[in-house]
């Protein structure tokens, strides 16, 4: 393989010398660029609404009734999902042609799909913000096929159908590319992950009247995505970038990749059971869910080991230091957020007390940032300079990008810690002891930690602004 | 990793493990669905409850509240609200929203009719009677 990569990329310049000019191996890889730009734009929107919600936690009537909390939250979480999907698609369009060693089947279709997805996504968000949710449900014919009003799957049925069509066009395009080209383990894992993502999304159309079954199959999308097929996509992206920036042997990387994703599926599929403790499903889910989710941190730990090993044994000094930093950060932060913070409250006797509290929120924040936000930024960091005609950005630009890495990552650590503190106090006051406090009384007592979380959120936003600024820093050519 | 552990062994572990555990999951799902009526209170799944569930969904109640611990964490758990507050309180509370108390978290007014309020209460009663292995730990949710 390495022949293909090194053939186009000039040898790494010594030290931090000027980034060499480079070009894409396949011109059609450039369709990833609008996807990545849209992803970053939606990311900004996500954080703005996150800050707004954080404020509503402490100033309850902030922007009420213009933007009620439930609307802000829907925008926050839906933008997260959509920007990550844009990131995955951009990554797919970039990675698959290079791995398959041929041009993308249809770059035109990829661009068309991009606009369809962007416009549909934007219209959905406008819908959330401009009319009451019940009106939106009526306008979009929710009565014909009711799928709305379930956490993370709030999109109108029409939007859901649109997502399926976009996904099909994307998968068709990539699958055709793979079929006609070289097949590597990375492409295979990436494609399995992406097909799995589309297949499990179909369960979002199933909304039985029976609440227990509704919740049961809802997790087939939500859990089997984030603790299943998305991890395949993440593993493939990380493996791809690590091969490129370290030059280590593909055989070694692919072996690691298989072991990691094997552990992901072995632990994660039955690990779905940790969501089945208290929703009316059989009690055997308690031991099953506890045991298998105790194994779930292992693949994340292996991912960290893998990333550090790869970088330590690197065979070349890639000039894109920022991409290497993002890759290492993804390993560490996904292990902490998804692995450690997930395990903290995943055993049934502990989960009995923590289920549905701020502990869940703390884990959710670090896990999504560490695993998925960071891996998309790893991919962007590596490929964006190439799409802009150079192997790496200037030193000055990379320094700013690395600042943004630390600002966002440290801010997220603090957001998680403050929410954990809030969660522990909430559990203590509301669920333990002889005189449990009502929900709102407990919330008022922990407002201090919500303020601290909001402060950390502001730092995160600053980090994101710095991140975007890094794209506009040219730096001296001979820096 | 040792040289004796080859890439194809790793690949087999992935395919074998993935397929085995997915099939096991499907099997457990079949059992869960089959035995569900013992715990899921579906015997009381009336037309009124179904209408109540739809109201719960189209007003995006999950965007602030949790229901059986899932949802947002901004407003109280409602899986057990029927036992905590009783039907009349729930209806009066929904009608009285928003409170307008300065600085306090606000719930929108959804302009539900009296029969819709009854539907919603029926849904919350049905939800409260699902066997959740004694969760939440106490009436405060």
UniProtKB/TrEMBL annotation, chain A:
<feature type="transmembrane region" description="Helical">
    <location>
        <begin position="255"/>
        <end position="279"/>
    </location>
</feature>
<keyword id="KW-0249">Electron transport</keyword>
<dbReference type="InterPro" id="IPR023615">
    <property type="entry name" value="Cyt_c_Oxase_su1_BS"/>
</dbReference>
<feature type="transmembrane region" description="Helical">
    <location>
        <begin position="323"/>
        <end position="344"/>
    </location>
</feature>
<keyword id="KW-0408">Iron</keyword>
<comment type="subunit">
    <text>Heterodimer of cytochromes b (large subunit) and c (small subunit).</text>
</comment>
<dbReference type="GO" id="GO:0005886">
    <property type="term" value="C:plasma membrane"/>
</dbReference>
<keyword id="KW-0472">Membrane</keyword>
<feature type="transmembrane region" description="Helical">
    <location>
        <begin position="186"/>
        <end position="206"/>
    </location>
</feature>
<keyword id="KW-1133">Transmembrane helix</keyword>
<comment type="pathway">
    <text>Nitrogen metabolism; nitrate reduction (denitrification); dinitrogen from nitrate: step 3/4.</text>
</comment>
<dbReference type="InterPro" id="IPR036927">
    <property type="entry name" value="Cyt_c_oxase-like_su1_sf"/>
</dbReference>
<dbReference type="GO" id="GO:0015990">
    <property type="term" value="P:electron transport coupled proton transport"/>
</dbReference>
<feature type="transmembrane region" description="Helical">
    <location>
        <begin position="79"/>
        <end position="97"/>
    </location>
</feature>
<keyword id="KW-0679">Respiratory chain</keyword>
<dbReference type="GO" id="GO:0020037">
    <property type="term" value="F:heme binding"/>
</dbReference>
<dbReference type="GO" id="GO:0046872">
    <property type="term" value="F:metal ion binding"/>
</dbReference>
<keyword id="KW-0349">Heme</keyword>
<dbReference type="InterPro" id="IPR023616">
    <property type="entry name" value="Cyt_c_oxase-like_su1_dom"/>
</dbReference>
<feature type="transmembrane region" description="Helical">
    <location>
        <begin position="35"/>
        <end position="59"/>
    </location>
</feature>
<dbReference type="GO" id="GO:0022904">
    <property type="term" value="P:respiratory electron transport chain"/>
</dbReference>
<feature type="transmembrane region" description="Helical">
    <location>
        <begin position="405"/>
        <end position="428"/>
    </location>
</feature>
UniProtKB/TrEMBL annotation, chain B:
<dbReference type="InterPro" id="IPR036909">
    <property type="entry name" value="Cyt_c-like_dom_sf"/>
</dbReference>
<keyword id="KW-0249">Electron transport</keyword>
<protein>
    <submittedName>
        <fullName>Cytochrome c</fullName>
    </submittedName>
</protein>
<keyword id="KW-0408">Iron</keyword>
<keyword id="KW-0812">Transmembrane</keyword>
<dbReference type="Pfam" id="PF00034">
    <property type="entry name" value="Cytochrom_C"/>
</dbReference>
<dbReference type="InterPro" id="IPR009056">
    <property type="entry name" value="Cyt_c-like_dom"/>
</dbReference>
<dbReference type="InterPro" id="IPR051811">
    <property type="entry name" value="Cytochrome_c550/c551-like"/>
</dbReference>
<dbReference type="GO" id="GO:0009055">
    <property type="term" value="F:electron transfer activity"/>
</dbReference>
<keyword id="KW-0472">Membrane</keyword>
<keyword id="KW-0813">Transport</keyword>
<dbReference type="GO" id="GO:0020037">
    <property type="term" value="F:heme binding"/>
</dbReference>
<feature type="transmembrane region" description="Helical">
    <location>
        <begin position="12"/>
        <end position="30"/>
    </location>
</feature>
<dbReference type="GO" id="GO:0046872">
    <property type="term" value="F:metal ion binding"/>
</dbReference>
<keyword id="KW-0479">Metal-binding</keyword>
<keyword id="KW-0349">Heme</keyword>
<keyword id="KW-1133">Transmembrane helix</keyword>
<feature type="domain" description="Cytochrome c">
    <location>
        <begin position="47"/>
        <end position="128"/>
    </location>
</feature>
